[in-house]
Amino acid sequence: MTDILRATLEAPSAARPAGRSRAFARLADVPVAAWRDLFQRAIEPNAFYHPAWARAATQHAREAGGARALLAWDPEDRTRLIGLLPVVPAWRALRLPLPFLVAWQPYTRLTTPLIDRKRADAAAAGLLDAAIAVGARAILHVDHSSQGAAARALRSALDARGLEPRVLRERERARLDATQDAETLLHEALGAKKAKELRRQRHRLEDDGAVTFDVARAPADVAAALNRFLALEASGWKGLRGTAMAADGGDVAFLRDATAALAAENLCEVIALRVAERPVAAGIVLYHGSRAYFFKIAYDEALAKTSPGVQLTLDLTRRLCADRAILDADSTANAYHPMIDKIWRARLPVATSLIPLHRGDRLVDAIQFLVEARERVRRDLRRFYHSLLELRERQP
Fold it and tell me: How many C-beta atoms lie closer than 10 Å to residue 380's C-beta?
């Protein structure tokens, strides 16, 4: 890591030169009013970069250490924020001692930056300049919407400098086209046989009482529904493995703070499928502009044969398609997800790209090699771990 990058990341805000601190600051130090205004003007939505959500993450997430924001300000109005991308240094994110930054979002796979729709070119250029000013040689832009308006603005800014992003990985995840009729969409996605089976499973749920779909939107209702969601998630395999949100006090504090803040602006809801008033599936849904985000889902695994998680998703699909203000929904799921991919058949291209900041910089080749090698090792270790789990589960 270069001296300038290290000094900028480690020095307190007040000790940094004023010009640099305006372009690179702790997330907690970004003026909330300017950030909130940019969120409303973003050329492409990203609910996870709402100031309340991101600031709660920096306060509570285990990976929050060193989180900063690249900032672009309108050159004609220095109080107007036109670009924002949260980042962490490569050492904190990947344990790689090299001078590059990594786009940051600890709780979901979406780091599409906030870019002013009316000043997109200037905003994208400003974000690149902000990274250069602190000594970064590249930005690892993980899990961003690769075909959206924000990505196009960044590519245009790079092209103007004779640079080109290096796509390290690209895949597609499930997206709902909410402009369609819900019943037509579900019939085409599931087919008659699967739809009939799901209706049969719904009837089996009804054997134990009335099945209802509830939506909590008011802050007090969201807080109560969130507690039920956390308990439901912790009751399953995530609870046994210690990976449920309820297993970490910081994660719980983050969820409570973030969902409460967004619910106060009508941007968050907790949905639930109930059988005789007992929650059997629940999910957290966020909103930004015309897009919804299916952030989390949990279900009662004792009822797995009746597919409560799928039933919840079907009801959510109908709700979103009936809302004329919503055009689409991001599943936020992994690519090739075995459940949501079969229901939401539209796709959102998501990529991880390495953005060079200087022409002819050979260090970027080394950064790319190490990032890809690290990812291969992590992938192999995950496969080995899951193989061990499967082997243990098969043993009597």
Answer: 10
- Contact present, 99 and 2 (Cβ < 8 Å): yes
Rounded (to 5) percent helix, strand, coil in the chain: 50, 25, 25
- Return the CATH number of 3-174+349-394, one of 2.60.40.420, 3.30.360.10, 2.160.10.10, 3.40.630.30: 3.40.630.30
Tell me which of 3.40.30, 3.40.630, 3.30.1450, 3.30.390 is the CATH number of domain 179-326.
3.40.630
pLDDT in tens, 50-78: 999 999 999 998 777 779 999 999 999 98
Lowest mean pLDDT among 10-14, 43-47, 216-220, 345-349: 10-14
347: left (phi over 0), alpha (psi -120 to 50) or beta: beta
* Two structure tokens written together for 18: 């004023």
CA-to-CA dists, residue 219 to 185, 191, 223, angstroms: 32, 38, 6
Range from 91-100, 133-142, 378-387 carrying the lowest mean pLDDT: 378-387
Whether 292 and 227 have beta carbons less than 8 Å apart is answered as no
- Which residues, other chains included, contact 108 with Cβ-Cβ below 8 Å and sequence gap of 6+? 48, 293, 295, 332
